[in-house]
Amino acid sequence: MIKLFSSEEEATQQVPLGKSVLLRAADANGEEEKICLSHTKDGFFAVQNTCTHAGEDLHKGFINEQNEIVCPLHSYCFNLKTGHATRGNATSLKTYRLEWKNDEATNQKALFIDL
Ligand code: FES
């Protein structure tokens, strides 16, 4: 797992509630993954950043009341927990598991991602 943020405070500063950011990380094979990290009222979620409809960057979209990321290009919606398209005919997004774990170096809860 890769540490994204060292504390909840840092995570919230970098990704305020209701916002999404683009993360770039290398997977186990060294391939770059573009990830949309979203901060919702239900917590943080990570999905692939490339929309499965026509390739727009999902981190430029917005989060709706149903905890879905809404693509800015054609407004397809994707459930951030499952990655499933809930509006529009598109395949599901890849989802990434996030986990808060105690960081022994700082003794704070840190946010990790499983690539
Ligand atoms: S590119 Fe995302 S909905 Fe069309």
Tally of separate helices: 1
CATH class categorisation = Mainly Beta
Question: What is the average of the pLDDT values?
Answer: 95
Largest sheet composition = 6 strands, antiparallel
In angstroms, what is the radius of gyration? 14 Å
Tally of separate domains: 1
Q: Which stretches are low in confidence, meaning pLDDT under 50 for 5 or more residues running?
A: none
CATH architecture assignment: 3-layer Sandwich
Order of helices and strands: EHEEEEEEEEE
The percent range for helix content is under 10%
CATH H-level superfamily? Rieske [2Fe-2S] iron-sulphur domain
Ligands bound here? FE2/S2 (inorganic) cluster
Q: CA-to-CA gap between the ends?
A: 7 Å
Strand content: over 45%
Give the beta-strand count: 10
CATH level-3 fold name: Rieske Iron-sulfur Protein
Secondary structural class:
mainly beta
What is the spatial order of strands in the main beta sheet? Answer: 1-10-9-4-3-2
Overall geometry comes to globular
Verbal overview:
By secondary structure, the chain is mainly β. It has one helix at 8-14, and strands at 2-5, 20-26, 32-40, 43-48, 62-63, 68-70, 77-79, 85-87, 95-103, 108-114. A 6-stranded antiparallel β-sheet has the order 1-10-9-4-3-2. A 4-stranded antiparallel β-sheet has the order 5-6-7-8, with no helix packed on it. A hairpin with a 2-residue loop joins strand 3 (32-40) and strand 4 (43-48). The protein starts with a strand and ends with a strand. The structure holds FE2/S2 (inorganic) cluster (FES).
